[in-house]
Design a protein that fits this description.
By secondary structure, chain A is an all-alpha fold. Helices cover 78% and strands 2% of the residues of chain A. Chain A has helices spanning 7-28, 34-75, 82-116, 120-156, 167-211, 223-261, 274-294, 305-331, 345-370, 375-383, 388-401, 404-434, 437-459, 464-507, 521-562, 575-589, 591-608, 610-644, 661-706, 719-738; strands at residues 335-338, 341-344, 649-651, 654-656. Chains A, B: This is Putative K(+)-stimulated pyrophosphate-energized sodium pump.
């Protein structure tokens, strides 16, 4: 094995070392007075308790899934059982990334509050460093894990260079890693999302609306659960999510790169592996530049926090883009070919730039639709003056409208990156976007830390100016959360397409059958069913929040009624009962949506074959992207419409403030938007990637089952060939279902004629 | 020309004669006291004034579109200019169908109120007969128009039998008819939908919520506008909508039937035209049985109105299904072939049955999700107890969930009808579902008539028991409206697929190029853009309602404030100002969504070619069906959740009635649901059909432009052929854009390489 491969895990280790250093620094900061420490301890304990419960359930899932994967590798010569081990590693690292981020976040929150007693600059420093521990942890683990695993499997499958040994099988193992990571991501995002929003909605509905007490008021029994939720949903959930995204974006490119590499005669200075390792190198370099740029995020007292973050982000992006140019031109040969389509190394760099432009545009558009003072949010504000219903109508309309430009940008991005470098271009565009994930995630994770710091300041009754400082950070955090979601959905869309293309290549190895033709009735039927999945998934997620929030409301009402003196601050609220409601609801309700994402591709693939599954994947992707943007943006816009009232808004000559009727209407919208933007909306990007990865993992087995004897055009084959085809299928099935011994079983084959002629 | 063709228009004439008879009968009924007559006159005048304004605007549109169509027929030898005339006829008949239904509805409403003074039986009789005038008018005009036009064009293009003369061009003219009908349908549905919901939402928000006065209270200035809205939206809009649906469903089958007919050697007893005329004959027979079954819709005093309607409906459906069997077996030859796929006449009947089963299941599922007392509506009811926000979350979750089973049913229906009779099967399944449109529409249209009757009873202060009777009819009307929408979206989905298949056949005449391959980057990009259109369309529609409702609220508040004694019933409200607000808003706001539906297919088709347009159409269809069901069902469920409070609902041991806090929350949901279920939701089915029809109409020109020299697989052609291909394209473009004289102009061609290899 060549030494250049070791560069990749080394970059991961560097990131982890910086993470440890930053983590130590945060821990050394002062954690405030006794009351603050106690509240912080409550939050940290609640969060850890939830994570323990969640991970216990997920352990069962991982074991069962690993056994199934191992079995598939055992019965199918085209699949490998080592994939099961990679799956477990991916799952464990993803869980650890979430855990690690949360651990530091529950330390940083109280330290940020304490720092805010001194200065805004210090508070930003602590909260952003806390966020960057998460960012570096996620990317460091991913790069180390992927790089090390790549070295191991290349050795294991005897890949001396790309044309020697079994490169395909080696890379297939990496898809197992990615499957593990994204599965945990989905459960963590949905579970955490249900937890945090059940608590948030419940706390707001009784606290703000009914009892008229402010947010994070210690008299509210749901307030600890709400703050725990910020950590398990917005931090641990997001950490697992971005670990998964980062990994699967790289994997999509790696698999397509493998196809380029293994072509006879392909040579470069890297044993023919340059297209495979390129995305990992870019990701590693992007992470190193992210580390560098964290040191540029600084703000003076009274300065602009958003600008400080933007400066850091742009430094990372621009340095990464420039170095990507030299890396690509040096690593790749001048011309590459994938599935008959030729392109240049310059084209690959062009595709990276397309990815960066798409990501930037998505962030800009998302910000426009969710920022205070712009037309969309203002329209919701003015529609709040005529009641709850018009506020809701306004928000739904904004959310739906907000899909237009991003979809056009994405379509142009697909078109453009393909024009530059074919399918590899689509994949590398996504990888380019995600290269600075470490920086992106640092920016994203600082928001909930600041939010929590504000909560602790409020609950410990610190002076008003402390809360004012954390509020500045929190407001910036709301914007970065929204733009981060726009970015996430764009990269997920491109990644899914890369994975989709990789799936087609593996499941339909014969180039003449590489179509997903929606003019065929059964493929179109697949498109219909696939497009429905994001709807049912969202429905399950938001209904779960609605139900859990109701239970929370009833519990809080009960405590207000039954605990004497609670509203006067004399009776002690039973915080732990509210924590228990959120925990139980989220664990119970995350399972079904997760199962749908995992089971549907397997069922469709094995019953109807790869082309119908391709239709399903296209449906899931297109509708998932739409629903993700619709829900995230509507939620973000409602949130900021509500926030607009804090400074007072002018509607047709009258100024309305907090507590006015229009403000109450805007709270309704914000509450509806909560599960939209923090539960179902951000789950969409994981859903579409996970279903693509599941398909890619089963692709070798599908190829074995559906392409073993004759190509898919069975309809026009003579009847003899058709029979042979069916027999082959039936045998493949029986082999898969019952192991290699049972060979004479027949199952009903899918009728061949159910394919549009042509 | 053969005599058997004359059977079709004759069936249309029979339907129109019955319509006239029923219309005369309704006019003869007593129209009540002076106050009732005056209110009815206000409503009728308001409705007619709106329709006049709307039709004036649409006249400009029809003229411009007709000129463009005529021009296309002039420059492109494959297209016919007569299509422009057919377009005008289709538009005029659609407008007339809406006008006619509304004229009789504004007569029936007051007569139903008067009849309700006598008995429920009489009231049902008057309102249902009023509805059936609409039902028979729509179907009679459609059958007469289509049948007569078919005879004319067959003569004009010298089609002695299917293989002699230009059958293809003749049928192309019918697509122009359908384009006219669906264009008017879209504008009428959107315009009427904005009108009615702006008035309804506005009236409710100030009247019920703020001033605490009941619905239809004469003190509410928006109340006349609200009742006018029922007529222009729910009656005229729905009439134009179903005229369009009925026509385009038939056309989808006719065009595919034409492909079967023109194959050399195809013979039957009908000059080879049986596959073409079959859908018209089934539609005609279905209409005759619908006439018969209207006489079975009767109810005794205190009887079950829903059952009376169901009996009538089932008689029509069963008789039509039985006769369809004999018609199909007798008309069609035993075996047919379409695009290389063979099937039997028995298979065609099987497809009809699939269509009926799909339609029935869709109605049943829709009823489950929107009916009082079932799990979905009850979940919204119980979530109303914790406030506006949880009510909204509950309704959104129900709406999203409600897409699951229908999408699976539709996918199975596509799969099944195709398995029975190929593409022709998919088309005839839709035609079978729509055959009893006359009965369906009679049932649908009686609802708003009863609703209006209730309004008139309230405003004229008739005894409470009169309103009680109209309320029974109105409640049934709400259910039939919901199930009708489920039915409409199912038939639209199947029709769109038939039109989509017809489009592929015409735009890509070479069978080897008949693919819509979403594995190609540019086609997938098309899918993304297409799927976004229903979102932006819905956004425009509901935002328009929100804005207009706000204006209405402000106007009503102003009148309450400025007109002395208005709330004591002494001051006279200025009804006409509210009517003007709705009229202006709806006319102004219907144009942009309508333009999107018409322009996008043309732009995409001419710039990117038929395959990308195919991707767009698939995207629009799948996302339009989802959004249609989501919005209609959420709206229906919210409505009935609110209605549940009228009888009192039990939530965790406490009974809540009208006026309670949970009821107020449920009113919010109902208000949000109003534009969902009556503006954007039901527009979706027209949107998807209209975009397919536009594509089908431009298909011959696209075929001319994109397929003239070499097939689409330019990527793998030698470079010489590629150049030739581009030249041919460029020439075709210049011919199209600048007329036949300018031939040497070059435009940039779409890069061929932007196609996935394979």
């Amino acid at each position: 094995m060549s030494n250049f491969l070791y560069v990749i895990p080394v970059m991961g280790i560097i990131a982890l070392l910086f993470m440890i250093a930053k983590s130590v620094w945060v821990s050394k900061q002062g954690s405030g007075n006794e009351k603050m420490t106690e509240i912080a301890r409550h939050i940290a304990e609640g969060a850890m308790a939830f994570l323990k419960t969640e991970y216990k359930i997920l352990t069962y899932f991982v074991i069962i899934a690993a056994i199934l994967l191992g079995y598939m590798g055992y019965v199918n010569p085209r699949s490998s059982w080592i994939i099961a081990i990679a799956f477990i590693i991916g799952a464990v690292l993803s869980a650890f990334a979430g855990f690690n981020g949360m651990r530091i976040a529950t330390k940083s929150n109280v330290r940020t509050a304490e720092a805010a007693r001194t200065s805004l600059s210090k508070a930003l420093s602590v909260s952003f460093t806390g966020g960057s521990v998460m960012g570096l942890g996620v990317t460091g683990l991913a790069i180390l894990g992927l790089g090390a695993l790549l070295i191991v499997v290349l050795n294991l499958f005897g890949v001396i260079n790309a044309q020697n040994g079994e490169l395909e099988k080696a890379l297939e193992v990496l898809t197992g890693f990615s499957l593990g990571a994204e599965s945990i991501a989905l459960f963590a995002r949905v579970g955490g999302g249900i937890y945090t929003k059940a608590a948030d909605v419940g706390a707001d509905l009784v606290g703000k609306v009914e009892a008229g007490i402010p947010e994070d008021d210690p008299r509210n029994p749901a307030t600890i659960a709400d703050n725990v939720g910020d950590n398990v949903g917005d931090v641990a959930g997001m950490g697992a999510d971005l670990f998964g995204s980062f990994v699967s974006t790289i994997i999509g490119t790696v698999v397509l790169g493998g196809e380029i590499s293994k072509q006879p005669g392909f040579t470069d200075g890297y044993n023919g592996l340059s297209p495979v390792i390129l995305p990992m190198v870019i990701a590693g370099v992007g992470t190193l530049f992210s580390i560098l740029s964290t040191y540029f995020v600084k703000v003076k007292e009274g300065g602009n926090v958003q600008r400080a973050l933007n400066v850091g982000n742009w430094i990372a992006v621009i340095l990464t883009a420039i170095s990507a140019y030299f890396i690509i031109i040096n690593m790749l040969p001048a011309t590459l070919t994938l599935r008959g389509h030729s392109f240049t190394s310059g084209g690959v760099f062009g595709a990276v730039i397309v990815g960066l432009v798409v990501g930037t545009l998505m962030s800009v558009i998302t910000e426009y639709y969710t920022a205070m003072g712009k037309r969309p949010v203002n329209s919701i504000v003015s529609q709040s003056s005529t009641g709850h219903a018009t506020n809701i109508i306004g928000g739904l309309a904004v959310g739906m409208e907000s899909t237009m430009l991003p979809m056009i940008v994405l379509a142009a991005g697909i078109y453009g990156s393909f024009a530059f470098a074919g399918l590899y271009g689509v994949a590398i565009a996504a990888a380019g976007m995600m290269a600075t994930t470490a920086m992106q995630l640092s920016i994203d994770a600082f928001g909930p830390i600041a939010d929590n710091a504000g909560g602790i300041a409020e609950m410990s009754e610190l002076p008003k100016d402390v809360r004012a400082k954390t509020d500045i950070l929190d407001a910036v955090g709301n914007t970065t959360a929204a733009t981060g979601k726009g970015f996430a959905i764009a990269s997920a869309a491109l990644t899914s397409l890369a994975l989709f293309a990789a799936f087609v290549g593996v499941a339909m190895p014969d180039p003449s059958t590489q179509h997903i033709d929606i003019y065929q009735a059964r493929v179109l039927a697949g498109l219909f069913v696939g497009a429905m999945i994001p709807f049912i998934f969202s429905s399950l997620a938001i209904a779960a929040v609605g139900r859990a929030a109701m239970a929370m409301v009833e519990e809080v009402r009960r405590q207000f009624r039954e605990i004497p003196g609670i509203l006067e601050g004399k009776g002690k609220p039973e915080y732990e009962k509210c924590v228990a409601i959120s925990t139980n609801a989220s664990i119970r309700e995350m399972l079904l949506p997760g199962a749908i994402a995992l089971v549907v591709p397997v069922l469709v693939g094995f019953i109807f074959g790869p082309e119908v599954l391709g239709g399903v994947l296209a449906g899931v992707t297109v509708s998932g992207v739409l629903m993700g943007m619709f829900q995230s943006n509507a939620g973000g816009a409602w949130d900021n419409a509500k926030k607009s009232f804090e400074k007072g808004v002018d509607i047709k000559g009258t100024t309305h403030y907090k507590g006015s009727e229009p403000h109450k209407s805007s709270v309704t919208g914000d509450t509806v938007g909560d599960p939209f933007k923090d539960t179902s909306g951000p789950s969409m990007n994981i859903l579409i990637k996970l279903m693509s990865i599941v398909s890619l993992v089963i692709a070798p087995t599908l190829a074995n089952r559906f392409n073993s004897t004759v190509p898919e055009t069975g309809a026009v084959s003579p009847s003899g060939a058709k029979t042979e085809y069916r027999d082959a299928r039936a045998q493949a099935t029986s082999t898969f279902l019952y192991g290699p011994e049972v060979k004479n079983l027949r199952i009903m084959a899918v009728p061949d004629r159910n394919r549009f002629p042509g």
